[in-house]
Amino acid sequence: MSYAQNQYQGQLGDFAALAAADERTTFITKTYMHLAGAIALFAVLESVMLTSGIAERLMRFLEMRWGGLIMMGMFIVVSMVATKWAVSAVSPATQYVGLGLYIVAESIIFAPLLLIANYMDPSGSLIQSAAITTLVLFGGLTATVFITRKDFSFLRSILVFGSIAAFGFILLAAFFPGHLQLGAFFLYAMIALACGYILYDTSNVLHHYRIGQHVAASLALFASVALLFWYILRLFMSRRD
Predict the structure, then answer these.
(1) Residue 127's closest CA among 107, 113, 106, 108?
(2) Of 12, 154, 177, 232, whose CB neighbour count within 10 A is largest?
(3) Residue 79: which of 60, 98, 107 has the closest Cα?
(4) How far is CA 100 from CA 73, 107, 127, 178, in A?
(5) What spatial distance separates the first Cα and last Cα of the chain, rounded to whole Å?
(6) How far is CA 212 from the centre of its chain?
(7) What are the tens digits of pLDDT across the range 20-79?
């Protein structure tokens, strides 16, 4: 859901770290306002999918042979296109289309998982607990970066390797379901990977994005938050089994 593909080459202005204090503050404020808007839109889309029957249709597609792999492949392609558009230095409209496309893709991927969580706990407390845990972790990691001002760009190679390894395990589990089960250890490892992405993306906001790239920065942060929420929810669901 996040692939350490932040790009800084868009010639939109000075790097935020080198900009004047007021410009840097405005950039950071816009980034997190867009992140909040992305999360709100995601929540609205999920509500629509769960109440309209779209989530059930997506679940039936996933139950088809190779349905999960097809959906994962489509998500990866769409997310790459959306990320490329979001970092566009040519058109602000294209940036917003990229962000919107990515939010829609995430909502489609999440809908079947949230549907299962609702079946397991119709009260909604399971999803709510996972969401609160995600926000608390995100807040703590964000505060760590902003307080220490540390540049976590050194995590890039680790995150890329971890993402490739995780994708490999997921493929193996899909092709050999009777021989490889992705248990609690894998879930904890993916939560750690998502936390690493949040540290990496947040430090990029402070040190590597240019003024004007708030849409791309918010997309990267949203992708990392979504990844964290996905595996925290999966972990909480596994404890209910």
Answers:
(1) 113
(2) 232
(3) 98
(4) 19, 11, 23, 38
(5) 25
(6) 21
(7) 788 889 999 999 999 999 999 999 999 999 999 899 998 888 777 666 677 777 778 887
